[in-house]
Prior knowledge:
The structure holds two protein chains of two kinds.
Chain A: H1 13-36, H2 42-46, H3 49-82, H4 88-100, H5 103-114, H6 121-128, H7 136-161, H8 164-172, H9 177-188, H10 190-205, H11 209-214, H12 225-235, H13 237-261
Helix pairs in contact in A: 3-7, 3-10, 4-7, 5-7, 7-10, 8-9, 10-13, 12-13
Chain B: H1 4-18, E1 30-37, H2 41-54, E2 58-65, H3 67-75, E3 82-84, H4 88-96, E4 105-117, H5 127-132, E5 138-140, H6 145-156, E6 165-167, H7 170-178, E7 184-188, H8 189-194, E8 199-203, E9 211-218, H9 225-236, H10 238-246
Parallel strand pairs in B: 1-2, 1-3, 5-6
Antiparallel strand pairs in B: 3-9, 4-7, 4-8, 4-9
Helix pairs in contact in B: 1-7, 2-10, 3-4, 9-10
Amino acid sequence: MSRSRRRRQKLPWQIVLIAAVAAAFFLAPFVGLMWRTPWSKFADIVRRQEIRDALWLSIKTSLMTAVICLIFGVPLAWLLARVEFPGRRFIRALTTLSMVLPPVVGGIALLFTFGRRGLIGQYLDSWFGIRIPFTTTAVVMAQCFVAMPFLVLTVEAALRQLDSRFEGAARTLGGTRWYVFRRVTLPSIRPSLFAGIVLAWARALGEFGATITFAGNLPGTTQTMPLATYAALDSNPESALILSLVMIAIAFTILIALRDRWLGRAEQGLSL
Amino acid sequence: MFGRRAFAVVLAQIAFFTACTSGSNTQETTTLDVYAASSLATPFADAGLAYEKAHPGVKVQFNFGASSDLARFVQEGAPADVFASADMSNMDRVESKDLLDSPPVIFATNYLEIIVEKGNPLNISSLQDLENLDLVFVTTSPDVPIGKYTAEVLKKAGVSVTPDSLESNVKGIMLKVASGEADAAIVYHSEVIASDGQVEGVEILAEFNIVAKYPIGIIKNSANKKQAQGFVDFLLSTAGQTLLTQYGFGLP
């Protein structure tokens, strides 16, 4: 966005007013949260072991999710954007589905698929002795399930807008398909790629419903920050408030930092 | 693979997370908002229908959840008319904030049972087995009544079990055991009845068991105190008590 060059024009006040209401609607809950926060106890509560466990688990799992989404999501996005194949629309709809589905439904679906008696899980258990629910792996799977669509859709949009003549030129100059993908395609969609990673990561960080349903809730193993916040609501509402603030602070800082450093030129696709 | 009851458990689980209450009042109908412990979901759904039938123009709307969640909602000013808790302490939280119209009344009781997967593959027969066998055990946090009762019962029996997950309410526990993810848990006897064979109950000896008392109270700020009292009276009537016993609850 080139702010400096935009000419001042008469703004339609009706739109400005509605936009202001929308912005206030997003701002007010944060103010409400901060209004109730017991600031004097902040340092004390943040230093507690269970809170640090939850924070560390959240950071660890959400970063793992971001990496997995990158590894699997980009090829899927490429396939959806570039290759005509029967069932493509179905696959795309499927990818979007987990975005709009209540996460709890996703969690139940995962449970009945990868659980101990599930479609695939029963064989994992009987053949390899692998049980996924109630483990950190389950947390990452739940996060991937809800977060990957954000990366796939962002990257797919960018790929579709990309002028494929550049890639064609690189191919005629003798680049292999893989080389062209790595050196031409990926660099040209870099802003969207980062936007996709950040969106997926942020969604993973906030994941609650699918995690508690599929992975359960145990401090140190599956209790991420959102679960710890929810658990603290009863026993210790002050901790819950402070945990919420910590999460907001982390997400906000990273979104702002990334926006300035990497996403400044995000013209394509979904930008932040 | 899963029967209709398991499906119902799943639906109930979804309902808890997506549940939202809106106290919409149209001209003709009065809406009664009843906040009730999740273990009351099945009998209260029936009680609501029966009450609506007997009182045309009244719509009974439920918000089922962990008593601790509901107590918090009420404290935060949620538009509840009636609050039914699975334990005294969450009712006390509401009463101590002076949010009740009159002292709460005990309308039902319950006791605990071990639940295991259908067919009891691990042959669990006592609380001691929960400690001895290497099994996946789930419960809730001690703030939720069932988690507190479970801890109490285990302590009475001198059994120590490390849970694999702290679910958010009874329905979460039921889902984990009915789907075979967890080997065992401790829940209310009424839940075993409501599960209709999806899980199997294993008795807990009376010396270790507890009696869960269910209090109900009318919220001070309720706009429909008359109907709220009517619903409470219905639960305490012969018809209401019969309905509760059908679902495995005990009489006060």
